[in-house]
Amino acid sequence: MIEMKNVSKVYGNGITAIHDLSVQIEQGEFVYVVGPSGAGKSTFMRLMYREVLPTKGTVSVGDFDINEMKEKNVPFLRRQVGVVFQDFKLLPTLTVFENIAYAMEVLEKSTRQIEARVEEVLKLVKLEHKTDMYPNELSGGEQQRVAIARAIANMPRVLVADEPTGNLDPDTSAGIMKILETINAQGTTIIMATHNSEIVNKYKHRVIVIDDGRITRDEEKGGYTYEN
Ligand code: ADP
Ligand code: ADP
Q1: Nearest CA residue ID for atom 8, ligand 2
Q2: What are 176-192's pLDDT values in tens digits?
Q3: ipTM of the assembly?
Q4: Is residue 226 one of the residues assigned to a domain?
Q5: Residue 215 needs a FRET pair 20 to 30 A away by CA distance; which of 10, 47, 79, 111 works?
Q6: For residue 224, is it within any domain?
Q7: Residue 17 CA, ligand 1 centroid: distance in Å
Q8: By the 8 A CB rule, do 141 and 176 touch?
Q9: Is residue 35 part of a domain?
Q10: Which sequence ranges form a coiled-coil region, renumbered to this chain (predicted)?
Q11: Ligand 1: which residue has its CA nearest to atom 12?
């Protein structure tokens, strides 16, 4: 599903964030990305949704060759790769419904299709009763659930989550994990960066450790106890 071959990423300021990294992730996997701050985790994930381009090496996601693809096809890639952030990034002037619908309108769906799908994803994250509320009327956990609903509205094959529980308390984080596991069980590949060792050790999945732009460990499900 996702393949990186000998990828390096050097930012404009000369910092090498990713260093000759190769990895393969299959459709349907759930992968944690862990490692110290500044190790390159966010950059590793930004390469997957073409927020940054590799300086060297090749990245492919599904049928997309990140290096070679045309700019005009980026919206098609983004339909295949949903993204969730630590700080939710909901649009504050739009309701829950509108935040999700907006992500779909970009893809020219009919009003009826959009309404049906918004209802479906809100049910999945158990927020169907908050459809007309604004982000600032919701708790952090609820906002993250809206962000997840928005990220999966277009039925992406991959969900990239950059520290999705970073701002949430343990109980709320557990709720987010259950939702991510449900989405994964439906076949969506999940790549999740996290500093939360409790989550990594409780909900066992493949663990990729990144340090100084390199993969220093890559352990199958349950094979690794991660210490923060
Ligand atoms: P992590 O997610 O593990 O904290 P990042 O991928 O955010 O790591 O950062 C890796 C390195 O690249 C850090 O040294 C960071 O300062 C640098 N970096 C990240 N984004 C940029 C950017 N847009 N421009 C320049 N340097 C960046
Ligand atoms: P996160 O905490 O989610 O990993 P970062 O702190 O890496 O996020 O990045 C936040 C924003 O700042 C991003 O848009 C990133 O591109 C930018 N950025 C991060 N580090 C640097 C840096 N050293 N120089 C310039 N921009 C950076």
Answers
A1: 42
A2: 999 999 999 999 999 99
A3: 0.79
A4: no
A5: 79
A6: no
A7: 6
A8: yes
A9: yes
A10: none
A11: 17
Mean pLDDT of the chain, nearest integer = 95
CATH number of the domain to which 18 belongs: 3.40.50.300
Number of domains in the chain: 1
**Distance set, CA 184 to CA 10, 31, 77, 80, 168 (Å):** 32, 10, 19, 14, 21
Cβ proximity of 182 and 153 under 8 Å: no
Atom of ligand 1 nearest to the CA of 18: 10
Q: From the centroid of its chain, how far is CA 47?
A: 12
Handedness of CA 112, 114, 117, 119 (dihedral sign): negative
- 198/171 Cα distance (integer angstroms): 12
> Which structural domain, as residue segments, surrounds residue 196?
2-219
The answer to the question of residue 117 being in a domain is yes
Give residue ranges with CB within 6 A of ligand 2. 13, 42, 86, 162
Q: How far apart are CA 188 and CA 156, in angstroms?
A: 7
CA of 116 to the centre of ligand 2 (A): 36
pLDDT band for 224, please (50, 70, 90 cuts): low
